[in-house]
Amino acid sequence: MTSFSKELSFRWSDLDPNFHVRHSAYYDFGAQHRIEILEGLGLTMKVLQAQHFGPILFREECIFRKEIKLSDKIIMRTKISKMKPDASRWSIVHEFLNEEDKLCAIITVDGAWMDTKLRKIAHPTPEIAVEAISLFPKSEDFVSL
């Protein structure tokens, strides 16, 4: 597997007054896809709550290359681009590609795992998180931190 992929379906509420996808909708699609991927890898909300940890973001950035309109067919591909060996810190990239496989936007997030009881970075990283995130496909320019 080279990436987790998902075809996006846009709603009227995802548009801005210029009739293209509003900037904040991209972040919503990225966040939803990350949670769906984690759920699929066994990191369900129940597991996260029971083990008192969850993902947190330090940075989220989107670079917009080509506008996306309501009827456009867009595939979002998600990969991991950076990670510490203990999976304590990581970066995930979401690419938004149109039917011609042209890059419309790219979101990069930098994150870690938080202990939800202590409200601090989880140390050590919960083993189930290490196992799940290590299953993420790596980007072509993957960097081990």
TrEMBL record:
Question: Which InterPro entries is this protein grouped with?
Answer: 4-hydroxybenzoyl-CoA_TE, HotDog_dom_sf
Report the SUPFAM superfamilies cross-referenced here: Thioesterase/thiol ester dehydrase-isomerase
Q: Which CDD domains match?
A: 4HBT (cd00586)
Q: What is the lineage of its organism?
A: Bacteria, Pseudomonadati, Bacteroidota, Flavobacteriia, Flavobacteriales
Q: Which PANTHER family match?
A: 4-HYDROXYBENZOYL-COA THIOESTERASE FAMILY MEMBER (PTHR31793), LONG-CHAIN ACYL-COA THIOESTERASE FADM (PTHR31793:SF24)
Pfam families for this protein? 4HBT_2
Native source species = Flavobacterium fryxellicola
What is the protein name for this chain? Answer: Thioesterase
Q: Name the Gene Ontology molecular function terms of this record.
A: fatty acyl-CoA hydrolase activity
